[in-house]
């Protein structure tokens, strides 16, 4: 089986209007660092992962499923999927496990 | 004072070789979702913020300071800074607080 490794990032952020206590905590710390001019801080997650699939569309479908069912809470969070890169690779059940 | 609002994202991820229990937890959940072909999951944070500054270089300097001193732990985490966009705006101390 020939497959390509696709590296994706899933960016998860609180939806607009949803409370973001971590963002407020960052804003509250700015005074200690003598930083001004910073506003609207939103803290979310970034998940990077590799998917082995025949093509980018198939890999992206896996990431979309993962993002919506496991990595985000659709009630309060939004996400986007970002392709970081692709690396060709050959995966063969016959070869796997046999020393080179 | 004339300033431009710059929107940035700071992506924070565990350094290579650093344990990532959240990433392992995601990988352990893949079987329940009947998803295969996913590997090397790394879970980090994504912080989005707006900086008002005269130009992009000044804004980026603020974000870099914030990222290294507050948003990441340099011992175990790496970060990158991503410019999301810029919006022109005029901020005037004389006008601020006066109803339009």
Brief synopsis:
Chain A has two helices and three strands, in the order βαβαβ.
Report what the structure shows:
- The structure is a homodimer of 100-residue chains.
- Chain A is of the alpha+beta class.
- Chain A is built from 2 helices and 3 strands; from the N terminus they run E-H-E-H-E.
- The first copy, chain A, has helices at 21-29, 56-71; strands spanning 2-14, 38-53, 77-90.
- The first copy, chain A, is elongated, with a radius of gyration of 19 Å.
- Residues 91-100 of chain A have low confidence and may be disordered.
- Strand 2 (38-53) of chain A pairs antiparallel with strand 2 of chain B.
Give the oligomeric state of the chains in this entry, treating copies of one chain as homo and distinct chains as hetero: homodimer
Main sheet properties of chain A: 3 strands, antiparallel
Q: How many strands of chain A?
A: 3
Strand content of chain A: 35-45%
The most extensive interface, with participating residues per chain, is: A-B, 34 and 35 residues
What form of chain A results from the Cα inertia axes?
elongated
- Report the span from N to C terminus of chain A: 18 Å
Query: Percent of residues of chain A in helical segments?
Result: 25-40%
Give me the strand/helix succession of chain A: EHEHE
Contiguous helical run count of chain A = 2
Overall pLDDT of chain A, averaged?
88
Structural class of chain A: alpha+beta
**Poorly predicted spans of chain A:** 91-100
Features:
three-stranded antiparallel sheet; 2 helices; homodimer; alpha+beta; 100 residues
């Amino acid at each position: 089986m020939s497959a390509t490794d696709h590296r994706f990032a899933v960016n998860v952020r609180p939806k607009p209007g949803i409370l973001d206590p971590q963002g407020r905590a960052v804003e509250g710390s700015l005074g200690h660092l003598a930083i001004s001019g910073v506003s609207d801080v939103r803290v979310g997650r970034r998940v990077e992962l590799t998917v082995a699939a025949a093509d980018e569309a198939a890999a992206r479908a896996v990431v979309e499923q993962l993002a919506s069912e496991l990595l985000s809470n659709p009630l309060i969070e939004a996400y986007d999927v970002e392709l970081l890169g692709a690396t060709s690779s050959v995966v063969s059940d016959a070869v796997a496990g046999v020393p080179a």
